[in-house]
Fold these 2 entries.
Entry 1:
Amino acid sequence: MYRLIGMPVSPATKRVCWALDFADIPYHFEEYLPQITTSWVRLRSGQFSGPVSVPVLLGKGGIKLLDSWDIALRAHHDRPQAGLIPDAHREAVAQMNTLSEQIFYAGRILALDRVLADNHALLDLFPSLIPGWCRRPMLPVMRNTIGAIQKKYADPGSTEQDQIKKLDNALSQVRARLDGKAYVLTDGFSYADMTIIAALQVIRPYQPDNSQPQSAYEKAWSCETLATQYGDLLQWRDRIYKEKRKITYRNKPTKHPAR
Ligand SMILES: N[C@@H](CCC(=O)N[C@@H](CS)C(=O)NCC(=O)O)C(=O)O
């Protein structure tokens, strides 16, 4: 069985979990804890230099995939009948994946600034295995970890407005591509939808129950002006999520939290 190492809050992890679940490919999900499990991931994935990022897919026969696009291609290779990346549309799906990276890279820069400015958002980030009582005393550790991630993915010399412009530009391309259709590809639901939808969480995270107030972390990941301007895309995302994101896996509830 595959082992998928990822972070539940990460758009890149979310899209591959969706792809694997949709294609009914079994995997064991392992949560990546930046700085804490980095050396362990390096060792198993054979990355002895350079930055480590997730998701990482490990499998029998020495399979080590270090980028979500390669993982999606692998899922398609294993279960082509799921139609994740139809051969005739591979280029179009790859383009949407690139667009989704533009959205989530720009959104992540804005979100990390907001997370670092809000202790409640930082507290929301502790993995469930850390007991509630020791989270506040460990805030400096979390701040240091998120600060390191902020530096790693920074866009030196750019302003907040530059990132908003990039987001606006990429989102208008998604809107044009969708053009009121149900799915990005005319042929039906595919990885093109999954990758864009996973990235839209940097505009406003998906909330299964909209009547619940947003958590501090969810607020930090929301760009309210763009969420209003692109409300049509968020409505599309919510509808597709409800229709297509499985809440069960082989008739059992999914255990990993990256839904
Ligand atoms: N293009 C890469 C992007 C991976 C990426 O940016 N991963 C982020 C999470 S979305 C990450 O690993 N963050 C934690 C870290 O860098 O320590 C992919 O799609 O796999």
Note: The longest strand covers residues 2-6.
Entry 2:
Amino acid sequence: MKFDTPTPRRTTPGRRTVLKASAALLAAGMLAPISSVLAQMTLRRTQDQILGPFYPIMSKPNRSGDLTRVPGGSERAKGELLIVRGRVIDPHGRPVAGADVEIWQANSAGRYAHPDDTNPAPLDPNFEGFGAVTTGADGRYQFKTIKPLHYPAAPGMIRPAHIHFDVRGKRDELISQMYFEGDPYISKDRFLQSVLNPEALTVKLSPSREDPDFMVAEFDIVFRG
Ligand SMILES: [Fe+2]
């Protein structure tokens, strides 16, 4: 009778074996409690990006959380509707309550409502593009806005679509930019490509379950709080 050659057993210990060994070591006081190990793990701070020339110095941010409408306006801003949301957390993953999250961006034609923007693309009277919200106890923030368009920043230089962030806590301030996966201008953008991990500043959009008119961008912020 011929037998098949048995499949070689793996030489690395299985998950159950590791858990049993860890439990034994923990019981013997040879391993730190898992909670203290987790407490020592730290998340990488969200990567900084330049403030850029179009920070809206001339106006105050809209604090309604909905940039698709302006106060007193009757129409919605032009463009692809977008919910930008996420958590503001510290390097240990704890929510940062009371952080001020500010965003500003170009409109759906690639134009900022800023006097120094020389892009001939039209302004949208129903879009200011400058908002702020404060995180709650869970560290969460959310904006309704529109997806900005890429724009010419200098001769031969197009900036990919992005949303600027300025996040202020009690001890830290983070200035960065959020980009969109699949944008054809991402790979040549010297600002995004200057960071160690460009993918970490790039979001993938998914349809909103709550409101089918919106796509959702999830963008968590890590800073010292
Ligand atoms: Fe910009």
Note: Residues 49 and 176 are 4 Å apart (CA to CA).
